[in-house]
Design a protein that fits this description.
Elements (H helix, E strand, L loop, with lengths): L21 E3 L15 E3 L5 E2 L1 H13 L5 E2 L3 E3 L2 E2 L3 E2 L1 H7 L4 H19 L2 E3 L6 E3 L7 E3 L11 E3 L24 H8 L2 E2 L10 E2 L1 E3 L6 E3 L7 E3 L6 E3 L6 H4 L26
Antiparallel strand pairs: 1-2, 2-3, 4-7, 5-6, 8-9, 10-11, 12-13, 14-15, 16-17
The protein binds zinc ion (ZN) (5 copies).
């Protein structure tokens, strides 16, 4: 499943490739065995990479939730080049395999979608409004707000804001509910057959880091990896895996027991 686990031959540029601009042929180029493994090519910013170094860097960026790739080369002291690389040049110069392309493009699309979801239309004037404070559902539309009157709408139910704000759960309008929160509260309970002592645990949890809804497939240990932020956490006590594993094994219930159903959804602080 994981690409990292696959044995992959080291990637190399083809030195005859006229579309690439090579920096040098490396010190350890062996003309006898034609080892061009250290052949480096220039990115658009002028800094040189190898297919492996570029793949590795961009993958680490995706793991951290960044889908825009910037050159990490140090130019002076601690100042980085920081120039934006296009995905096209990354794909080309990292010599991404078909499987890597699939992984990169899916991850980038997912990260971009998560970012853009924080923009939606004002229910009254239909202009796009960006929500900056992700923990507040009460959002002001600056177009609809006049000198006399502030216009706030509810991010969740798309109606004019009612009641006191800021609030993260709902506004005062009838029927304004957070469907995800409701699911966390009402989902069925499951057991984790392979984890000793876990007989009743909510089947859906919100990732403690980014808030994404996650389910446990009831197989293997209690830890799971969030598909969005990639943090590993314990489905039972909701602590990070690194913290939980200090006090119990992955196949045993945690000393603090099964964490209660969540009453709020964590906001991802990127
Ligand atoms: Zn650069
Ligand atoms: Zn408006
Ligand atoms: Zn509402
Ligand atoms: Zn997460
Ligand atoms: Zn735990």
């Amino acid at each position: 499943m994981s690409l990292q686990k696959q044995e992959q031959a080291e990637k190399k540029y083809d030195p005859r490739d006229k579309t690439l601009k090579f920096v040098d042929r490396g010190d350890d180029l062996d003309p006898v065995s034609s080892d061009f493994s250290s052949l480096r090519a220039e990115m658009s910013c002028g800094h040189a990479v190898t297919p492996d170094s570029l793949t590795h860097w961009c993958r680490s960026q995706l793991d951290e939730g960044n889908y825009k790739f910037r050159c990490p080369a140090v130019i002076e002291g601690t100042t980085q080049c920081n120039k934006l690389w296009s995905y096209q040049e990354v794909r080309r110069l990292a010599d991404l395999t078909a499987e890597e392309i699939k992984y990169f493009e899916e991850t980038m699309a997912r990260l971009a979608a998560a970012e853009y979801s924080e923009v939606q239309q004002c229910p009254q004037c239909k202009t796009c409004v960006e929500r900056k404070d992700l923990s507040n559902l009460c959002v002001k539309c600056i177009i609809c707000t006049t000198k006399q009157k502030t216009y706030n709408f509810c991010w969740q139910c798309q109606r004019q804001w009612k009641g006191p704000g800021p609030r993260s759960d709902r506004c005062g309008n009838d029927g304004c509910i957070n469907k995800d929160l409701k699911l966390l509260q009402t989902c069925e309970s499951i057991s984790l057959p392979e984890v000793t002592g876990v007989t009743s645990c909510p089947s859906v949890r919100a990732c403690p880091v980014c808030g994404m809804k996650v389910e446990h497939n009831r197989q293997f240990c209690k830890n799971i990896r969030c598909p969005r932020c990639h943090v590993e956490f314990c489905f039972v006590c909701l602590k990070r895996k690194s913290k939980c594993c200090k006090t119990s094994s992955p196949y045993q219930i945690c000393p603090s027991g099964v964490a209660p159903r969540q009453t709020s959804i964590p906001v991802w602080k990127k």
